[in-house]
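Intended use. Records like the one below are meant for learning the mapping from a protein sequence to its folded structure. Do not use them to infer anything beyond what is encoded.
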Amino acid sequence: MNMNMNSTSKNKYVLTAIIAFIISIIAGIFAVNRFPLSIENMAEDSLYQNAGTIPDNIKIIAIDEKTLLELGPYSDWDRNKFADLIEILNSDENALPSVIGVDFLFSGTNNSEADKRLASVCAKYDNIVMASTVTFDTYLYKDSDSNYEIRQYISEEGKPYDELAAVVEYGFTNAIYDDDGIVRRVYTCLQYDVDGLNTQYDAFAYRIASKLGELKEYPSQVEIAMISNPGEFEHISMSDVLDGTVSPNYFEGSVVLIGAYEEGMMDSYRVPIDYSKQMYGVEMHANYIHAFLNDNIIYSVNKYLQFFITVIIVALFSFFVLNSKIRSAIIGLFVTIPGYILIAFVVYKLTFYKLNVISVPMGIAIAFLVAILYKYIEMQKKRMHEMQGMLFSMAEAMAETIEGRTPYNANHTKNVANRCIEMLEYINLKHKDKKTHLYFSDDDKKQLYLAAMLHDVGKMDIPLEVMDKPTKLGNREKELRDRLEIISLKIENDALKGYITRQAADVKLDKIQEFIDSLGAFNCGRPLKEEEWAIINEIAESVYSDKEGNILHYLTQEEIDDLHIKAGTLSDKERTIMQSHVIYTDKILAHIQFGDHFKNVRAMAANHHELLNGKGYPKGMKEEELDIMTRILTIMDIYDSLIADDRPYKKPKSVNVAFEILDEEAAAGKLDKELIQIAKELYLTDNPINVN
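Structure written out for the chain above:
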């Protein structure tokens, strides 16, 4: 028993380990592919993008609503206003800004005086960085191994007009949009081979940061940790600088960014730190510059490492919840998910490396749901096993009740059930050796066993005087013997009183004694000989008449009918009553809910006395209506009855004789020949494969 329990536990752990592995691999694949991408992006933005202390060395001069109200629409401006602003900012050589970044495109020119003046003013200073744009295109590249790939290149650069470009540095301001419309990444610098020369294009923020110190080598695109929410960077209205309200000394040593700060100027973007507001482009560059200067670059953990981390965590959690109780699983769920997110946050704060946020919790959630489903299935299986156990124990109890009613049928039900299973197992062995097309599943075995255990349940409704009737006369034999004894005494008395002659009395007494002496033979269930029938018939016709003319029949009509039973001990009426047990079986089993697993039990049990030729009872079913398992039950029922040694009305048949009778029944079209042949292989005593 312990070995079975250990084996079951081991199998359970192996199964749960396999399930845990599958779930973890699925979660790992999700992690590598950042699936679902939109939710993963939102989760990462929420966890990793957190505003900090706004730096005071980056200041924004905003072309805001106040500026536009005082200076007029931007479209009406000439470039003198920017020339004036740059001159003001650089007016005190002892209090210069470290860098002035102008986030406006000055790509076109009409050679006006204002354009010339702007270029002239910028030429005086080396702290100016202007904005530009680039246009990307692709081409098909073939390497030395004849492999093709699509490569990107810059087909056009929208740099400042020539006079201005010649005297200032500039960087492109192209934004990188993700599929959800959020700008999370920024360009650093791009390098391309142009006409055999290596050409570098710096991004606007990267060029400004480069002027302030040596930067680390970054990939061409990086994700930065933003330091501010939209609108949090310090910004001064451009008009306040131009009219002297704000002194240029205020910008000493600072990075000064000049850019649009009004919605109508169409220079705002959705950013990961706050989805509810858009951030102006100039403020985004302020965030980028701060990130480059402080190395606040977000790195993604290597996808293989992320896969490994995800698989390990999800596999361990899955194995835990699959082998834990529901309460422990729920606690594990509410500890593991926040725990992982906390670890991911701490790792990010310490290293700026980000772990996927969704893949592990999603894998854990899937594992939890699978565990709930697994436990539900286990519970249902346990419940099903319990119900099956109850059903089988009920069947065994019924069989015990039936067999407890009579000493003459004590082991019949169990014998039939066991023989049916032996037949199915032997047939499966033959099927394995390809000697029969028949095959039976474990469910088939359970159904047939249960049907066999219940096939005689209807006998509980059969009167005991019929079911326990060991002889033709049954409990009437003593009454008959007493009557004949009385008649004998009356005849003797009549002879003594001279009512009849001694000779006549002796003849009568001899016939009665001959009948009584042979009554045991007449009363058994075997067929009688002609001379025995003659004795019975003579007594059946005999009557005693006294001197007053009163008549006393030797035998009653019931006794005559019983003694005239040709075979067995039951009269036609009693046989009909006995055969009705299958009807009662059907009625009793109709009240039991067998379910899908045992849906055929009732029919098999109720039809076990039906024959292939339609002459069985109670329905007279034909061959096509009787399935294989019902036929097996019928054969095993007859076989066990033939060889049973507990029947008082007959002697047990040998196995060989029993099969001779079964063969005769099969030849008459009553039983299945193929199944009887298989039974002979199984049970004949001279067969080396006999399991009996």
